[in-house]
Amino acid sequence: MPRKPKPYIFDSWSLIAYLDGGDIGGIVANLIGDAQENRSPLYMTVLDAVDIWEIIARTTSADEATKCVDEFTKLGFEILDITWAIARAAAVIRMNYKIDLKRSLSVAYTKHLKAELVTGDVQYKKINDEIKIRWVSDTD
Fold it and tell me: Which helix (H) or strand (E) holds 111?
């Protein structure tokens, strides 16, 4: 029986790096391409999508920000909405690790989906033992 492909959750840090290009953006692009080739599910949380939208809207326009987030869905990303069960799990993670809601939501979904979180955000270092993390930063 073939193994089920491993899901990936990309946070806003990794996806902004992708948009910026450069070495780290290239690493993220390769991970996205490999995941697509292996039919691995690609996810981002709704709060990460909002974060990306806001960053782009502030520097360009709301229309450009919307197009950018839409491009991620065209690449195969599913935007994960917040359910009560995930919100409650994120709240526990937030209390225990003193990380913000956006990050705790990514951790909760990573655990729930048995996924691998793709990030370079050092704020996740304090929870490194709880979830599988694919570090894409040059400072790890």
Answer: helix 101-112
Q: With respect to residue 140, please indicate whether it lies within any of the assigned structural domains.
A: no
Residue 3 lies in a domain: no
- CATH code of the domain containing 94: 3.40.50.1010
> Is 0.85 surpassed by the pTM of this model?
yes
Pairwise CA distance, residues 2 & 21, whole Å: 34
DSSP label of 58: H
Q: Encoding tokens for residue 96?
A: 């225990």
Cα(60)–Cα(54) distance, integer angstroms: 10
Q: In the numeric block, which tokens belong to residue 105?
A: 């939501």
Query: What is the tally of structural domains in the chain?
Result: 1
* Residue 43 counted as domain residue: yes
Structural domain of residue 91, as residue ranges? 8-135
Rounded to whole angstroms, the Cα distance separating 34 from 23 reads: 17
Q: Do β-strands 77-80 and 132-135 pair in parallel, antiparallel, or remain unpaired?
A: unpaired
Residue-wise pLDDT for 28-60, tens only, equals 999 999 999 999 999 999 999 999 999 999 999
